[in-house]
Write the structure tokens for this entry.
Amino acid sequence: MRITLMVLRLFYVVPYYFIRIRNYGKEEPPQHLEAFAFIKNATRRASDAGRVTIKTYGMENLPKEDGFIMFPNHQGLFDILIFLAACPRPFAFLAKKEASNVILLKQVIAALGSYAMDREDMKQSMGVINKVADDVRNGKNFVIFPEGTRSKVKNTVAEFKGGSFKSATKARCPIVPCALLDSYKPLDEKSIKPVTVKLMYLTPLYYEDYKDLKTIEIAAMVKRQIEEAIVQMPKLN
């Protein structure tokens, strides 16, 4: 229902947005930074049209230098749109293979230089992990959802998969835990009532903080930090 509302209120620019984003995905050499700025503007307008307010906290926790990975909990289909609309730093993201065939999302993945992972294909998955690590070493930022799929229980965080952190350990980059609150509401509830979602960037873990930990231990630590933040976030204005 909310997607329909967004499209109806922006019907006059939707074709333009789609064509521009598609073209960004085909450009050689890629123009990822320009594409990000364009997609950010489009996503902000879509959020406003869909009556979604996004509140962000802790932006001072983002590392000063690019080349980091953000690891948020995964609540709904709107999650990546929250980052696209609200994150002040350009990034790409890791999506599951099925998402790479969804119209518009497919074009956004190409435009930003993001990757789709086939979790049933170990060789392909390791290739993607290595590509992300290489990109991060070269100063690119990423969003990776360590639950692998969205939680079905509203603001409850599901198990974090240790393998999700392999790109970070290979790149030896900062890990930024990110807490999402009520992000399931915009697209997973059958309503067009105004909603507010919250995103909090937590204190990053630098390589020195986690170099002696196994990925499963890093996953547990990040999950715990996000769960603690979710408890506090309803109190924030």
Strands lie at 52-57, 69-72, 92-96, 115-117, 142-143, 175-181, 195-201.
